[in-house]
């Protein structure tokens, strides 16, 4: 097969205009940071799957966003203690992307086609990142605007799976849109599956528009976005509908070169979640509606500002950010066989605001960086009211007292460059995460398991130390040893077993358990993580990464039954490997493998989820410099990857092998 013809001798350089940003200070090189570029993002249709190439990056469970309920799509780093709310902050060009009610991230609203890349910083954020960056930060960069089509992807796959996404516009306008649909799969398989089970399905659509222009040397940008997704939860009568919209306005004047300038940003996010659950009959012969969360309106809004400068070899930044949230959950519950008999409304308000200073000294072989911030967090306006649907009688009317905390945090790092591209580094940091409205106020049900809210929760904090070595050259590599301690981790603590009636929660059926969110003592973890990558000639490349985390709970007086146990949903080992090979000028073959050791489904370490290996593969045929057709397989070997287990031993699994064929353009 002959090579593609060379490009014409005369080309017009494309003008690409990015969202207003300030230059990074350069201090991230002293921390455990991983860069994921646009080429890596294009190989998977979902952003969270691409991020999982970095070991320790995971959603609450093994399930990806293609099948996970929105309330379990929170992102955590380092397998210290994953949470449905997420213990990592996700930003897009500085604006938080975490849901204002629950802290999770709706990944279908962030299609990879609209992004230039992502920076994953493991370890507490502190500095400019603030509340929510407990185990780290994922900083997303939106694609630059350019004339014409920037990215396009369309694919079809097994089980009536379809997806299309596009990004393009003009030099000052970027439009991104995506939609997908799949009839899904049965999570419960074999003889355990019954009439209660149906397919885990998904339909989603999202869109975003960014308009920007330079006004008197100031870059101004306005971005609006919206999303909607409908999910079948795998049980008859259980489904969710998540929707929302957001708007961001950014003004920035950056230095002509390097560090310097200022940025001012304001944002607002609105979301709503409809979520119904079902009780499962013995033998999985059927379901009964157990809960109808028919609306969860929530609003989050905030402002942030930063000022940068440089004095000789020291670059500095000072800034502040303020965030408010307000949300309610309204639901019908307590079905005794003839329909729902009770109604619940619960919710409240939160505020967090802080100021920070960060600096980096870069001279010769030395890079020194440090930052400190102080935050004030508050929860107020709490309400939980339950009434009888037939008579209107108020059965429960709780107005928990508000609370407030002042939390100082900081991070410091140092890096020294040795000869031949090698370096050593060390860092210390502290971060915090206040509880979300969801954790404070919303009880929920999954099958026969019930989890109660807790309006008395306080922020969880993390302290950590790490040291690492690495090198740049034909083989790029790094290794990090870390120690972390989370104090007052918000944990779903088991407090009862069904069948039986309990205060506030009501009746828990046979085979179910009752849990409550509590600040459960502390979690201490140490581990090691490493990455390596390189090229094999001009036509092949490889990458390998691994992480080991040994975490243990000290439940203290709040949950002594957890002392000595491992946090739920935390595998000890995570290993990822990948390779790309171009045997022909037009043909590229790629494979990615991910291994996770066994993990516990529950806080009591009674439900063990087996270790698993997933292999994904992709073959692409290049039609031109920017276009290709491809064939992709997820879970190529059709492994049964366990993702859940109920109290009565029913196991659920990740999606079976899925083949997709598609056409893609990237410019």
Features of the shown structure:
667 residues; mainly beta; 3 helices
Helical amount: under 10%
User: What is Rg?
Assistant: 25 Å
Shape: globular
Total beta-strand segments: 39
Could you list the spans in which at least 5 consecutive residues all have pLDDT below 50?
1-13
* Overall pLDDT: 90
Kindly name the structural category.
mainly beta
Largest sheet: 24 strands, antiparallel
Cα-to-Cα separation, first versus last residue: 24 Å
Quaternary state reads: single chain
Discrete helix count: 3
The fraction of residues in strands falls at over 45%
Please provide a written account of the structure:
The strands form 6 sheets. The chain has a 24-stranded antiparallel β-sheet that branches. A 5-stranded mixed β-sheet has the order 1-4-5-2-3. It is built from 3 helices and 39 strands. The N terminus is likely disordered. Helices cover 2% and strands 60% of the residues. It has 667 residues and is an all-beta fold. A hairpin with a 3-residue loop joins β6 and β7.
